[in-house]
Amino acid sequence: MLSSLITGGVTASAALEPCVKLEGLNHWYGSGSNRRQVIQGVDLTINPGEVVLLTGPSGCGKTTLLTLVGALRQVMEGSVRVFGLELNGSSRGERQQLRRAIGMIFQGHNLLRCLSAEQNVQMGADLLPGLGYRARRDLAREWLRAVGLDDHLGKLPHDLSGGQKQRVAIARALAAQPRLLLADEPTAALDSRTGREVVDLLKGLARNQACAVLMVTHDPRILDIADRVVRMEDGRLIDGGLGERLWGADRLPDGGPAAVES
Amino acid sequence: MSGLWQNRRIPLAWLLLTRQPARLAVALAGIAFAGILMFMQLGFRDGLFDASVTIHKLFDADLVLMSPRTMSSIGMAGFPRRRLVQAMADPAVVGTTPVHWNLLLWRNPETRRTRSILTIGFEPGDPLFTDPSLRQKAHVLNQEGRVLFDERSRPEFGPIGSWFRQGRKVETEVAGKRVRVGGLVALGPSFGADGNMLTSSETFLRLMPNTPPGSIELGLIRLQNGSDPLLVAERLRQKLPDDVAVYTKQGFEEFEKNYWRSSTAIGFIFTLGAAMGFIVGCVIVYQILYSDVSDHLPEYATLMAMGYPLTTLLGVVAREGLLLAVLGYLPAWFAGQGLYALVRHGTKLPVEMNSERSVLVFALILAMCMGSAAMAMRKLADADPAEIF
C-alpha cells in the first residue's frame, strides 16, 4: 500500500478514503508532575483534495497535531490513520515510508545550506522513484519556475531573501508530488502578493492531484482558499473538527479576522 | 553506465564538506599529518629491518652457516671453518666461501676521529656478492693491507670516495693498523653499521690478530641449480655438529630482521609511533565529523522529515569519511615521498615508498576516517524530525 502511495498511484478506493482520520487523539508532553496534555480528544477527517486551515492561539497544540499527522511523532493515545495506515503502534520504518507521501513546509525554511535552490528542490524530487537524474532536475526547475524563482536556480540559501527561501522550501515539498501537504505558516515570511501566489499554487495542486492540505496559519488574507477552517484551543478542536465550510460563502471563522492572531 | 549516470544523486557529502573550505583544509591537514606520521614511523621501521640486511641480501649464497651463539650482525660469534669443508660433502653443494665479519674502529683520515665500520674479510678469489663488479675489484685485496671502502658509508668516515676518485692515496687506521683504500664499492649502511669495508681474510686476520685460528663468522654455501635449499639445509643440520647453525639465505635475512624486531625495542617504538599517528588522526577526524554532523543536525532532521531513511543519512556521513580519507591521504603520500628522500639523503637508510606501505597507510587512514564517521553517526540519532516544525 505504501509503495502505491509513494509512486503516486491513486486507486478508486483510495480516492474515496479520507487522507487523514483522527479519532480520540490525545497527546502529552513531559512526565510526572510536569506532564501536560497538549492534544485532547481530537477527531478530524481530511478528504483527498481538501484544503483545511488550522488556526488558533500559540501553544494550543496546532504544531503537535501537525507532527502527529506527519508521522514525525509516535502516537500516544487514540487513532491517527493516514492513507489508511494506523500510526498508533506503527514502526519507525513504516512512518519513514509514509513521510515520502507527505510534503512538509516548515515555519523555518530548513533548506540545506550547502545546496543551491535547484539542488534543494531536487532533494524533494529525488524521493520519486523511477525518474532519472535529468528528469528529477527538470522537475526541480519546473517547480522553481512555478514559485517564481527560475532565475535563482544556482543561488545558495544565504543569497536568497526570507521569502525566496520559503518559496524554495515550498517547491521542495511540492517536487516530491505529495498526496498530503502539511504546512506550518508557509506564508509568514512572504509579502502579500507572493503569499497569495503560493497559496493559490497549493490550492491548485490540491485540486489537480487530489492532494489534501492541512495548513497552520495566522494569515487572515488566505483564509478564502480553504475548504474548511478548523480552530483549535487548549488542545481541542472547536466544533468537533468540522470547522467552518467556506465554499460559496464569504463568511470568515467565528469572530472574523480579528479572532485570528496576527 | 548511462544508468549509473541517470541514477546519480546530488553529491551531498561532498557539498557538506566543501561548504566550509577553511574547516575542510584544517581537517585535511590533520589527516595528512597523521598519515605523514604513520608513513615516517612505518618507513623508519621497515627501513630499519631492510637496512639490517643490506649486506645479507648481497651475498652470493643459497645457504649460510653461522654460529648458534650469534645473536645478530652486530654480535657475530665464530665457528670452525672446517664445517664448510664438511658441507662440501653434500652432493648438492657446489661451492663455499668462508667469511670473517666484525665491527672495527675506522679512523677518519680528515678529522682523525674513530667510528665503527663493518669489516668483511674473504678470500679475494672466492665469490662473495652476486654483483659481478666486485669480482673485478677484488683482486686488489690480494695486496696485504688493502681494503675496498663502501662509498655509501656515512660521511663521518671521511671523504674517502672523493679523495680516491681524485687519485689521492687514501690511507688510514683500522683497529689501530694502517690500511690503504684500494677501491670503492657501493653497499650501503645499515642500522648495525654506518659504513662497510671489504678486505682479504689475510688482512682481516692482521687487523684482528686475536681471532682464533680456523674460526670464521659466516659460511656461504652455493648449491647446484635446481636444488631445494630447504632440503639441503635440513640434510646439513643432521650431518653437521651443533656448533653451527644452517640457514637458507631468506632465513638468514629473517634471523637478522627478527633480532631487530623482537630483541630490541626499536620495532615496538616505531609501531607505537605509527599507532600514535593513527590515534591522533582518529581524534582529528572524529572532531571534524562530529561537529559537521552537529552543525547540520536540523538539515538531517529535515531530510528525515521528508522521508529519507536514516541509512541514507548514515551513508552521507560515511561518504564524508571516505572523501576525507582519500583527500587527506594524497598530500600525506606526496609529503611522505619527499620526507623519505630527505631521510635517504641524510641517513643513507633504504627508506622507500613501496606499494605495500602505501596500501597499508591508506587502509589505516580509511579505517581512521570510517571509524570516526561511525562514531559521529551516533550523533545522528539526535536528529529528531519532530523538532523542526
Describe this structure in words.
The complex is a heterodimer of chains A (262) and B (389). Chain A is 31% helix and 22% strand. With 262 residues, chain A is of the alpha/beta class. Chain A folds into 2 domains: 182 residues, P-loop containing nucleotide triphosphate hydrolases (Rossmann fold), CATH 3.40.50; 69 residues, no CATH class. In chain A, the strands form 2 sheets. In chain A, strands 3, 6, 7, 8, 9, 10 and 11 form a 7-stranded mixed beta sheet that branches. In chain A, strands 2-1-4-5 form a 4-stranded antiparallel beta sheet, covered by helices on one side. The longest helix of chain A has 18 residues. Chain A is globular, with a radius of gyration of 18 Å. In chain B, 51% of the residues lie in helices and 17% in strands. The model of chain B has no long low-confidence stretch (mean pLDDT 90).
Throw out a few tags for this protein:
A: alpha/beta; Rossmann fold; 7-stranded mixed sheet; 4-stranded antiparallel sheet; globular; B: 389 residues; alpha+beta; 14 helices; 11 strands; 51% helix
Give a quick summary of the entry.
Chain A is α/β, with parallel strands linked by helices and 262 residues long. Chain A has helices at 2-6, 12-16, 62-69, 92-99, 117-125, 133-146, 162-175, 192-209; strands at 20-29, 36-46, 51-55, 77-82, 85-86, 102-105, 180-184, 212-216, 228-233, 236-237, 244-245. With 389 residues, chain B is α+β, with helices and mostly antiparallel strands.
